[in-house]
Amino acid sequence: MKRQDDKQVLRWIGGILTLILFLGWFLFWPLNSYVEAPGNATNLRSFVQVKGHPDPGKGSFMITSVALQRAHPATYLVAKAVPYLSIEKADDVTGGQSGATFDRVQHFYMQSSINEAIANAYKAAHQQVSRRYLGIYVLQVEPNSKFRKAIKVGDTITKVDGRHFNTAQGFQKYIGKQKVDSPLTVTYERDGRQHQTTHRLVKLTSTRAGIGILLTNNMKVKTKIPVRVNPGELGGPSGGLMFTLQIYEQISGHDLQRGRKIAGTGTIAPDGSVGEIGGIDKKVIAAHRAGATIFLAPYIKPTKLVLKYEEGHQTNYQLAKKTAKRYAPGMKVVPITSFKQAVHYLKQ
To answer: Boundaries of each Lon proteolytic domain copy (predicted)?
Structure first.
């Protein structure tokens, strides 16, 4: 009888351990994907400081975000069941980069969008502002690049063969004239220090040579009236429009908020045009939860060609409007193509 009782106890222990292991796997085992969910909508007043120019508005401009979490079996199933949650492959989110490299690139995108926001806002307010082109920022180094052991993501290339250009196109045009396997001397900055390296160019296309990197412009702005923007943990370029509005409100002294909670999203270009972003449906929900009554959404004309490549075959504005209708009743979604148009709408 005792032996049978011992076997029963062992079976119970085995069953409990199996259940614990299953629950641990179900709740904590990381999958090779991410769950995207509505993040936060945060008042930009706490992020922006313009010397001698406090925010005159009684309402708020709000920057919206998407919450990104590594998926586990439990959260994966939840995301499949909840319509406004989505599952993205890890490589689609990070581009195959490590977590640290991905965070560094997102931080750069945020800083770039802040620089463009300052330049646009100060120019619109007729305040002194100037741009200084630093060079080309390295977003990714291709596996076939001869420079891959020297140049890293986050470096800024300032010269090639001793020549500095004021646009990425200038650098690309010069390099494109060189031959495959010809040596190129690259001067670059990393953590405030200057380095130099020489390697051979690789074949990019049938007619063109290159370093073998993905790049973007690295630019800084200088203003007569000091401005400081601290985005905290936020990353990416999608806050450009809202940062521009917040900075403009403070530097110009115009009350565009007029007591309203205004959320939105969209990149900002040097000419003030507003570009599309990802996850706008999550941002609309985040804005609604924070009490926003107006949502500024990037707008592009929904042609057949455009819709073919859009997320869910819907433009940002179409998806935002559809999401608001279902999850944010009472919120007005406004189509925006430029910073100037956003200011005009808010003044009206």
So the answer is: 203-298
237 contacts 109 by C-beta, under 8 angstroms? yes
Strands 129-141 and 156-160: antiparallel
What is the C-alpha to C-alpha distance for residues 52 and 135, in angstroms, rounded to an integer?
Answer: 32
What global pTM score does this model have? 0.86
CA angle 278, 280, 284 (to 5 degrees): 160
Catalytic member of 146, 261, 283, 321: 283
> ∠ CA(169), CA(172), CA(173), 5° rounding?
85
Does residue 5 have a pLDDT over 70?
A: no
Share of the chain above pLDDT 70, in %: 97
Mapped to the 3 state alphabet, what secondary structure does 326-337 carry?
HHCCCCEEEEEC
* Dist. CA 301–CA 231, nearest whole Å: 31
Radius of gyration of the chain (CA): 25
Q: Render pLDDT for 136-147 as a digit per residue (tens, 0 to 9).
A: 999 989 999 999
Contact by Cβ (8 Å): 245, 217? no
Distance CA 111, CA 218 (A): 10
Active-site residue, selected from the candidate residues 33, 60, 112, 238: 238
Determine whether 145 is an active site residue.
no
C-alpha torsion 85→89→91→97, nearest 10: 50
Tokens of residue 81, six digits: 């069941």
Question: Is there a catalytic annotation at residue 238?
Answer: yes
